[in-house]
User: Fold this.
Amino acid sequence: MRAGRVAGAEHEREGGDGNRDGDGVTHAHVGHEGGDGLTGHEGGSGNSGPADNSGPSGHDSGPGPRVDISELVRVRARHPEAIAEAAARRIRRPLLNDAGRLMIVAADHPARGALGVGDRKLAMANRAELLERLCLALSRPGVDGVLATADILDDLLLLGALDGKVVMGSMNRGGLQGARFELDDRFTGHRAEDIERLRFDAGKLLLRIDYDDPGSLTTLESTARAIDDMAARRLPLFVEPFISRRTDEGKLKNDLSAEAVIKSIAISSGLGGTSAYTWLKLPVTENPDDMAQVMETSTLPAVLLGGEVGDDQDGAYEKWRGALQLPTVRGLVVGRSLLYPPDGDVAAAVDTAVGLL
Assistant:
């Protein structure tokens, strides 16, 4: 497959006729060979081709999309306004599908310095590969949208991958993985006004609470104000709460016991001046059988997060399957375990997760 190309209004600005020939196209996206130039698939469904564990497609899902980084950089350098233009014309959709469910692929980990997947410490560091995996995941039936930081969402806008998708901006990435200040999780990502201006559909924040770390109080207060800011704009905000503790070695660990998750739900549900637009993004507890009791803590709608799955992908699916039957659980927001599955087959991992809904 030849690489696609990024283009915006550059052709018209440089005296072109606005046709889609030569070096310019009228829509700001990376076009790909075959198909409609938006999904990044080569010719049809993309379900044929050689196996390749190292790439985004895996065993039977075909070659997948290819992203031309040089073209992305060219547009960013010469026409940064193309990002806002792409956001302005993006085709939007309701938050929930007809069945009232939600399947979101998450990719906001790199901005917090969390690049590892399993024993690969820099798995998410290759941006072209990450974008290719995201484009493939977003093209699969039943995937509703993506959660990411501005840099990744800007790329996906230029790639034309966000039409008809739910777009969630990640708001606080200041709690860098492994930092002494990790729990003082400043709002360094999207603001409510950014999400509104770019016509995105929701926001997400991370709230980790360590009773022994004063940084947690700062994050609690900032979270409450973010809930207020989003609610004032009638924009949903997905809050991901944890009770966290540091080990003797100083490493931060989230407590997934039933009691801890119950407390995190109770605390986060009460933040802000209204909970009308607040959603919860929750882990499955250490004992999955505890989830029924845990989810009785709040009436706020919730989605399940993926977290560290390791090699037991089937075990993760079973945990999600059980929790998805509970009345307040409306869907999944999963990242690394679908984008970087142990067998390398992104399409199959995503399709299996969609099937749980």
Residues 1-5, 7-54, 57-63 have pLDDT under 50 and may be disordered.
